[in-house]
Amino acid sequence: MASAETAAEHERILREIESTDTNCIGPTLRSVYDGQEHGLFMEKLEGRIRNHDREIEKMCNHHFQGFVDSITELLKVRGEAQKLKGQVTETNQKLQNDGKELLTSMDELRQCRLQQRNIATTIDKLTHCLPVLEMYSKLQEQMRAKRYYPALRTLEQLEESCLPQAGSYRFCTIMAENIPRLRTQIRDVSMSDLKDFLESIRKHSDKIGETAMKQAQVQIARDNAVTSQQRSASGRRIRKEACSGTEVDRNKSNPFTEQDSGILDVEDAEQDEIPGAQDLVDFSPVYRCLHIYTVLGDRDTFENYYRKQRRKQARLVLQPHSNMHETLDGYRRYFNQIVGFFVVEDHILHTTQGLVNRAYVEELWELALSKTIAALRTHSSYCTDPDLILDLKNLIVLFADTLQRYGFPVNQLFDMLLEMRDQYGEILLKKWNQSFRQILDQDNYSPIPVASPEEYQRIAGQFPFQDPELDKMPFPKKLPFSEFVPKVYSQLKEFIYACLKYSEDLHLSSTEIDDMIRKSTNLLLTRTLSHCLQYAIKKKNVGLAELVQIIINTTHLEQSCHYLEEFISNITNVPPDTINATKLYGTSTFKDARHAAEEEIYTNLNQKIDQFLQLADYDWTATQGGGQASDYLSDLIAFLCSTFAVFTHLPGNAIEHAMLPGKVAQTACMSACKHLSTSLLQLLLEADVRQVSMGALQQFNVDVKECERFARAGPVPGFQGDTLLLAFIDLRQLLDLFTQWDWSTYLADYGRPTCKYLRVNPHTALALLEKMKDTSRKNNMFAQFRKNDRDKQKLIDTVVKQLKNLIATNQA
């Protein structure tokens, strides 16, 4: 069993040896040597070899004849092969000889191809490098020409496209290393240009603003011309409509006539073209710097820097000079700088994308508006010249209109102008106060003499005066008022014109202008003119004739108030009967002045009477009175008669100009008589007069009778009956009581309405009686020895006692 297996194994190994590559037979043979049947295997191997040898021999015997035949044929072929070899050798030699030239040409061709390839490679490399060098050369040229924004674009193109395509060459590396330095240089140089630009516009803001304001002024003038042409054309159309409707229909499509259009065209042609901000300022540094910083990715830094610097410049521009208020040129330079600043900002706003925005510009404008208004309020408060204020107002209007055309809100400026209107009005009032005072001081307070119709028409042109009776009188003649009436009226009109000038171009309605003028005129009338008239009336050394003329003058000025109303309505185109229209207070002003003059007349008359009474020199102890009035009283009566003769020039009322004494003259006369009566009574009762004799009373009675004769003579017509005598009734009853010694009647009838001495006050009678009592005692030291004197003294004592009882009873 074991031998069979061994034989099978040896058979397998043999087959494996026969079929396996000799390189892999090692492991098979090792398995044989590792086993115990080595000899047996060797025997099998030799047997197998013998079998194969026999098979080989059989095969060789089978093919031997063919092999011999093949060798024989091969030997035959060897000769031919030798011939062929010789031919081939000969052919090869020929080929070798012929191929040497070809190889030389081929070698030359190969060398040429190599050079050609190298040249192509070089050209290709140069094709990529030359743009870099050209771009870098262009960059250097742009830097030298200070064209920094194109240089930055070139630098960007060089870095992003040219250098990567060129390859890693040394010069490319150097260029790449220089790019950040060039960017920094461009940024610094562009920033330097921007700083120069900011400094330039700061210096040229005045010129830019002046140019912008001139443009606005020209445009406003054109607009006004167009408006006036439209109004005139409208007026012509209305007139043509009244004549012929067909012409209106032909011209309906065009609001201007051919002549109007020609005028406008001529004005436009003659108007020189005024350069704008872009013509005066080169904004390229801003644009260039903005683009450069945008390309560099640092736009926010640039915007913040620009806005910060412009804010600083705005604060400098908005700081006014300390002496700006002295001249109009100071205000003009201030406004020009502000306008120039905001014209530049407006141009930057509309020509750049986001460098400044509307919110930033509005913020700056709010700052400028507040500071400008504050500066104008401060500096205009120092101004005392109305012409300068008016010029300043026109300049502010032009300033506001200019900025409004650039889209800036200017309502606060016009509100400030309305505030300045009050200041302007106060300055006008001060100026007109001086004018009025000068007129009143220079007036001669005499009626105006008129020698010719031309002179009369000249005065009538200055003052609306109408008097048919005076017109009928021949020349020369006199007007009832003095020079200050037409002068004051002319000044009132000049004041109204001055107020109207300020209200122009303030975008106010006609009603607002009318209301403003009327209120200002009322202030002029009630404050300025009223005070000036009071000053003229109250000043020292003013005579009664002057006061009389002032009354006449104020009467005529009062009548002219409705002409002033019409004058204001004509220049403002507002009817005087408009609802809520302010009325002029001229009537009340002139009435108050006239009443003040009347009171001053009364006061002056009383003072003159007092001056005459100071000359009174009574002998209060005289035994008997004289037969005629005292000298001082005669002089006083003569003065009063001459004075009241002047009053015949006073008007009877505020409308008529009759040459008759009026209420003023009657009141003055009554007041003078009352004051004279009261003063005489006080003279009789004053404390310095300790004794009064009956003789002194008789003389005093003569003087009072002289006064009564004056009153009875009617120095001023118009009194009914003996009305003027009533001024002396108290004095007359007192003197009658003492001269007639009618004490029984007085004491018996006291307190009754029908009492004869109703006007005699018991205190007054007692005081005078005490003076007479002392006189009786002191003048006659022997009175006690004479029975009549003793009886008289007793009677006086009795009357005194009764008067005291009467007074005590009344007090109780």
Polypeptide structure, described:
By secondary structure, this protein is mainly alpha-helical. Helix content is 76%, strand content 0%. The chain has helices spanning 2-19, 26-34, 38-144, 148-166, 170-243, 245-250, 258-270, 277-280, 284-295, 299-317, 328-351, 358-380, 386-405, 411-442, 453-462, 468-472, 484-503, 510-538, 544-559, 561-572, 586-613, 631-646, 663-685, 694-712, 729-740, 743-749, 762-779, 787-811, and strands at 449-450, 477-478. Residues 234-271, 649-661 and 779-785 have low confidence and may be disordered.
Shape field? rod-shaped
Radius of gyration, rounded? 67 Å
The chain-level mean pLDDT equals 79
Query: What class, by secondary structure content?
Result: mainly alpha
**Beta strands, count:** 2
In terms of DSSP E residues, the strand content is under 5%
In short:
This is Exocyst complex component. This protein is mainly alpha-helical.
Keywords:
812 residues; mainly alpha; two-stranded antiparallel ribbon; 28 helices
Summarize the topology.
Layout: H1 2-19, H2 26-34, H3 38-144, H4 148-166, H5 170-243, H6 245-250, H7 258-270, H8 277-280, H9 284-295, H10 299-317, H11 328-351, H12 358-380, H13 386-405, H14 411-442, E1 449-450, H15 453-462, H16 468-472, E2 477-478, H17 484-503, H18 510-538, H19 544-559, H20 561-572, H21 586-613, H22 631-646, H23 663-685, H24 694-712, H25 729-740, H26 743-749, H27 762-779, H28 787-811
Antiparallel strand pairs: 1-2
